[in-house]
Design a protein that fits this description.
The strands form 2 sheets. A two-stranded antiparallel ribbon has the order 1-2. A two-stranded antiparallel sheet has the order 3-4. It has one domain. The chain starts with a helix and ends in a 9-residue tail after the last strand. The chain is globular and about 50 Å long. It is mainly alpha-helical. About 65% of the residues lie in helices and about 5% in strands. α3 crosses α6, α4 runs parallel beside α6 and α5 runs antiparallel to α6.
Length: about 190
């Protein structure tokens, strides 16, 4: 395994192992915490399966997407995550050359899907709700990582672009699952 992909897998695994809900068992938010953890664990496992089957492109996307869910859960105050995602710059070269076409296709597709997903949601809580500001926090993080992805994409660092797009997508999907956004467009763009 390429050293940067191995580091990503290791840090995501360790973060998940040490993460726990910070919600009272009587709270309905505990179900959201459990679903966030379920999604993060599923994408960790998917990434391992992809990698062992010789698909580092989908492994990278799965690990970053799952990490997005995890970190969004922490920002929402639902999970305690001991080690949030650290940007891994210069992933260029971490994906073998024989996977270049797949990497180009997936990166371009994720950029397009992110744009479509962003215009397919509206804020769900009323503006007077105390959870309404969380919509802006999720959108801001999503947008920051989308912009990072676009910058990497422009520089032809497609692996870093895919990582950023996948991480951003995890944040947006988590926001939908947590009830901060309602889907007004294509439901197929979301796992929720």
């Amino acid at each position: 395994m390429h050293v940067l992909l191995a580091e990503l897998c290791r840090s995501f695994t360790e973060a998940l192992e040490d993460t726990h809900p910070m919600i009272s068992p009587a709270s309905p938010y505990l179900r959201i915490a459990d679903e966030i953890l379920e999604m993060a664990f599923a994408y960790l496992e998917d990434g391992v399966v992809f990698y062992t089957r010789g698909d580092p492109v989908n492994a990278l996307a799965a690990w970053c997407y799952g990490y997005g869910w995890l970190d969004a859960g922490a920002i929402l105050g639902i999970l305690i995550v001991p080690s949030p995602f650290r940007e891994i710059s210069d992933l260029h070269g971490s994906i073998p050359l024989h996977c270049t076409e797949h990497l180009e296709e997936k990166t371009t597709r994720y950029e397009r899907m992110l744009h479509e997903a962003c215009i397919s949601i509206d804020d769900a809580p009323d503006e007077s709700s105390p959870i309404y500001p969380l919509c802006r926090i999720i959108r801001d993080c999503f947008e920051d990582w989308k912009v990072k992805g676009e910058a990497y994409h422009t520089r032809q660092d497609l692996a870093s672009a895919l990582a950023a797009y996948s991480y951003a997508y995890g944040w947006l999907d988590c926001g939908v699952r947590a009830g901060l956004f309602r889907i007004t467009g294509d439901r197929h763009l979301f796992t929720a």
